[in-house]
Design a protein that fits this description.
It is a single chain. The strands form two sheets. The protein has a five-stranded mixed β-sheet, with helices on both faces. Strands 5-9-6-7 form a four-stranded mixed β-sheet, sandwiched between helices. It is about 50% helix and about 15% strand. By secondary structure, it is of the alpha/beta class. It has two domains: about 230 residues, Spore Coat Polysaccharide Biosynthesis Protein SpsA, Chain A (Alpha-Beta Complex); about 80 residues, no CATH class. The chain is globular and about 60 Å long. Helix 11 packs antiparallel against helix 12 and helix 11 crosses helix 15. It has 15 helices and nine strands.
């Protein structure tokens, strides 16, 4: 049998108790227009129901590895070490991709020798739907925060060069650390202009737990900076100017929020004073404020439902696109 000259792409799929979703993820891989795809599932200690679903999955080229609660970063590393493909695409077991994603991403990778990462636009489904409104990729955006989701194409050789995903990031953000590592090698990022990735929002996940933990967020971003200090310092002007601009945004949005609350209360009424007191010292005033009033004063929360849209309107209020 003649061996194919088309490069093999290995899809790396960690799975922990996602038996209700994994068939949908695998189905999106069966529909891929790129013919050379290998699926490596890492069952990271799933319950028996999920294990049974995994055993029944069918795919032309599939391997299942078994680990014991080592976490997503370590599970991906294990899968990539075992992968036969030249190119790697992580895909979580509860997400799906469009049928041309691999083909389009690979075409960019093959035509740009400097490409280290190729990804696309994305949307949300599940508990929340709509566009995933991440900023388009730019170096200044990535310096400030991660704008690249983990389901992006890269070379296995580059993964080996940077030492894989750092397994110290147990709470999350190991993908951000990995992309920074690739950028440090001089590789570039390319973004496809189409929505080809669909990210499932569940009632609870590792991401939601991370975002709700101040200690985890603080510790993670400190670790990220320390691991990539030289890269941040190399681009210090760009980084510092973007930090300053975003700080001004937050200050101005906070000011506008207070003004709208004062208008709502008709001046310094007891109710508006109480609202302002609750919001005054919060670093993210809208989200924390709404969470507080929904728990403490549900009737007031219903009256102030318009505030849910205020964060999205914030930049418009201060004249930023």
């Amino acid at each position: 049998m003649k061996k194919s000259t088309q490069p093999l792409v290995s899809v790396i799929m960690p799975c922990l108790n996602d038996g209700a979703y994994i068939e949908e993820a695998v189905s999106s891989l069966r529909e891929q227009t790129w013919p050379q795809v290998e699926l490596v599932i890492i069952d990271d200690g799933s319950d028996e129901e999920t294990a049974q679903v995994i055993r029944q999955l069918s795919f032309p080229r599939i391997r299942v590895l078994h680990t014991d609660h080592i976490g997503p970063a370590a599970a991906r590393n294990r899968g990539i070490r075992e992968a036969q493909g030249t190119y790697i695409l992580p895909l979580d077991a509860d997400d799906v991709i469009e049928k041309t994603y691999i083909e389009q991403a690979l075409a960019v990778m093959l035509s740009h020798s400097d490409a280290g990462v190729v990804y696309c636009h994305a949307d949300l489904f599940g508990e929340k739907t709509g566009a995933w409104e991440l900023p388009d990729y730019s170096l200044k955006a990535e310096l400030l925060d991660n704008v690249i989701f983990v389901t992006a194409l890269f070379r296995k050789a580059d993964w080996e060069t940077v030492g894989g995903f750092c397994e110290d990031f147990r709470a999350g953000m190991e993908d951000y650390d990995f992309w920074l590592s690739l950028l440090e090698t001089g590789k570039n990022v390319y973004q496809l202009p189409e929505t080809l990735f669909h990210y499932r929002i569940k009632p609870a996940s590792r991401t939601t737990r991370f975002q709700r933990s101040y200690a985890d967020v603080q510790e993670t971003y400190v670790r990220l900076y320390r691991r990539h200090r030289a890269f941040f310092q190399k681009h210090s002007d760009l980084y510092c100017m973007e930090l300053r601009r975003n700080l001004i945004d937050q200050l101005m949005i906070n000011k506008k929020l207070k003004e709208e609350l004062e208008d709502l209360g008709g001046g310094h009424t007891a109710e508006s004073s109480e609202i302002l007191t609750m919001a005054a010292d919060l670093s993210d005033p809208l989200i924390r404020y709404i969470a507080s009033i929904r728990l403490m004063k549900p009737k007031l929360a219903r009256k102030l439902e318009f505030l849910l849209a205020l964060k999205d309107r914030g930049k418009k209020l201060i004249g930023r696109k």
